Description:
Elements lengths: L4 E6 L3 H12 L4 E7 L2 H11 L3 E5 L7 H9 L7 E6 L7 H7 L3 E4 L4 H12 L7 H13 L7 H7 L4 H11 L4 H8 L3 H15 L4 H10 L9
Parallel strand pairs: 1-2, 1-3, 3-4, 4-5
Helix pairs in contact: 2-3, 8-10, 8-11, 9-10
Amino acid sequence: MTTAIRVLIADDQAMVRQGFTVLLNAEPGIEVVGQAVDGLDAVGKAAELAPDVVLMDIRMPVLGGIEATRRLTGPADATVKVLVLTTFDLDEYVYEALRAGASGFLLKDASAEELAQAVRVVAAGDALLAPSVTKRLIAEFSRMSGAAPRAPLKERVGALTERETEVLSLVAQGLSNAEIAERLVVAEQTVKTHVSRILLKLGLRDRTQAAVFAYETGLVRPAGH
C-alpha cells in the first residue's frame, strides 16, 4: 500500500484552510496532517508533523510565506516541498517565492482536481511551472537583464556537458521532459537522466531552481534581449 502524501496547509484565512482540507482529504493518496495560521506556525508545525508538501500562502501575519519557505527549504537535509498559494497569477511575490525555494505555485481558485494534481507533482519532486509562471519569470529577468551574472554562477555552468547545457536551456524555456525529448530526438528517459545530472552538478533542488539559474547566468535570455 502506497503511503499517503502528507500535506500541511498554511494560510491566515480559516475558510481557505478548511476548504482545502476538505478538498484534499477527499482525494485518494493525500492526507492533510495539519493547518498553520501564519508562517512561523507553519515552520513549527512542519518540524512537528513532517509533511511532504506545504501549501503556503504568501501574505500572512507574524512571518510571511516567503521567509517561511526559505526556512523550510533552506537546510541541506530539507525534504519538504512548498507549493505557494496566491490569488493572482501575476502576483508580485511569485518570483521571490520561487527564489526562496518553492517548487511551484497555485492559484487559490484552482479546482479540486488541479489542487490534487499540483500536490502530487510537487511531492514527486517535480516543479510545478505553469505557463503563466514561466512568463512571470521571463518578465522578471527582462527587468533585471542589465545586471551582470554572478561569477560563481558562471563557473558552475562550466561543469555541464554541451548536451546538458542544451537541456538546461530548454527546461528554462518551460518545456516538459517529453517536449525536450521530441525537440532533441531522444528518449524521454534520456532527458530525465540529463535533468537529474544537471541538478546534481549545479546543486539545485528542482526544475524551478534550474530555470532561475539559467536566466541568472545569462545562459538563456528573455526574447528581445
